[in-house]
Amino acid sequence: LQPTNSPWNTPVFVIPKKNGKWRMLHDLRAINAVIEPMGALQPGLPSPAMLPAGWPLIVIDLKDCFFTIPLHRQDAPRFVFSVPSLNHCEPMCRYHWAVLPQGMANSPTICQMTVARMLQPIRQRNPDILIYHYMDDILISGSSLKAVEQVSEQIQSAVIVAGLQIAKEKVQQVSPWNYLGWRIRDGEIRPRRVKIGTGPIRTLNDLQRLLGAIKWIQTVVGLTNEELQPLF
């Protein structure tokens, strides 16, 4: 974040998290309304069911991916919010994002492009290694553990050069592996446990939670996009 006098000012909120902490939500709907959408780069999630049986895996999770990708200096002043003082005891402080803000329509696409660009030379150097990438989740698989570990080291070096970060505590090198809602163990792939609320839908957030859970199990239960369309 950087102090700014930019007139582009949109509201922020804080919402409680289950762990007692707070999450800041920047309402960028007004900005998104005047942004040309870049569209999605991946029509779906890569399925681990396509992995050859018995191949070793390593799963890498990038840390705070949006917040490690800088905004262009000409664009940054458009993503502004103000922090009021308690009891109006002093003027508000105004800041703009210097990195990709959560809630901006094109942030996911830019994140995808940045990580894909970082991975492309590694893919070309290692055509026999499978590299699955979706947002900030990367899965590496190959016929030998040594080859997979070598590619993992290449990716970790490339991440540093690109200015990104790896969540060290989330690197998975042994079974079971969790990847994009799936649990992979000893040649078996199962969807991770998804809790679907059975209570009444009273708010938009209740509906979003339900739809999110349904999307995770969509391919498992055989629901088509056409069948789900009335819910969206």
From TrEMBL:
Domain Reverse transcriptase: from-to ranges: 1-184
GO molecular function terms noted in the UniProt entry: RNA stem-loop binding; RNA-directed DNA polymerase activity; RNA-DNA hybrid ribonuclease activity
SUPFAM superfamilies in UniProt: DNA/RNA polymerases
The protein's enzyme class: hydrolase
EC number from the UniProt entry: 3.1.26.4
Organism domain of life: Eukaryota
Key words of the record: Endonuclease, Hydrolase, Nuclease, Nucleotidyltransferase, RNA-directed DNA polymerase, Transferase
Similarity remark: Belongs to the beta type-B retroviral polymerase family. HERV class-II K(HML-2) pol subfamily.
Record-given protein name: ribonuclease H
Protein's organism: Tinamus guttatus
Lineage per the UniProt record: Eukaryota, Metazoa, Chordata, Craniata, Vertebrata
